[in-house]
Write a structure and sequence with these properties.
Blueprint (H helix, E strand, L loop, with lengths): L2 H23 L2 H8 L3 H7 L3 H24 L5 H18 L1 H13 L4 H5 L10 H14 L8 H25 L7 H20 L4
């Protein structure tokens, strides 16, 4: 394998092992075996588990917001941008629920700087999701697409509403007779409701 293929295989294997077992339970030998490389080569690229763990977190965040922003950033209006952001954010979180739960768990128990993890997580121009959202909001206000808003408060509401269902899902599964077959429909309705709430709050009232 070429160097890029080796590092990609290691990161993919590390995401899988860390997600299943957490940082404390993961072993470098298991990651090497899963990646199809020997442990010496693994340590050549990542000197220890802490270094590899941070790279895994960066990869998860970059995958998440890279994929979300790639679909939303070129939208022709802020209304379309917001709708696409919510839609793609939900889809990614749904597809990677286990990875998201792992990220939440590790963030809650370790002193990690999320701002650093988010920095450059959108590969298009190196800006963080917060910076892109702030710029999009300010641009929409200037164009008269939306009313003046507190950007920090709006972005907090957006992320809180988007993430809540996935944070609460383990509890919901254990406390309600949730049929997994109903989940896609629940997610679709939730997407529409979040968009309606946020858009109605900021749109210019005619």
């Amino acid at each position: 394998m070429k160097e890029k293929q080796v590092t990609q295989a290691i990161l993919d294997a590390a995401v899988k092992v860390f997600t299943q077992k957490g940082k404390e339970g993961a072993r470098m030998q298991e990651i090497a075996d899963s990646a199809g490389v020997n442990k010496m080569l693994l340590h050549y690229y990542y000197k220890d588990k802490d270094t590899l763990f941070l790279e895994v977190l960066k990869k998860i965040v970059a995958d998440l917001y890279g994929s979300v922003m790639d679909g939303a950033v070129e939208a022709p209006s802020f209304k379309a941008f917001l709708s696409t952001f919510i839609d793609r954010h939900f889809d990614f979180l749904n597809e990677r629920k286990d990875t998201f739960q792992f990220l939440l768990w590790e963030l809650s128990r370790q002193k990690l700087d999320l701002k650093k993890l988010l920095a450059g997580s959108y590969a298009g121009d190196g800006r963080s999701p917060y910076e892109i959202l702030t710029a999009k909001l300010n641009e929409a206000v200037q164009k008269g697409e939306i009313r003046p808003v507190d950007t920090a408060a709006f972005i907090t509401n957006l992320f809180s509403l988007d993430l809540y269902l996935f944070v609460a899902l383990p509890v919901i599964r254990n406390m309600t007779p949730l049929d997994e077959a109903d989940l896609p429909g629940i997610l679709q309705r939730r997407k529409k409701e979040i968009f309606r709430l946020l858009w109605n709050d900021i749109k210019i009232q005619g």
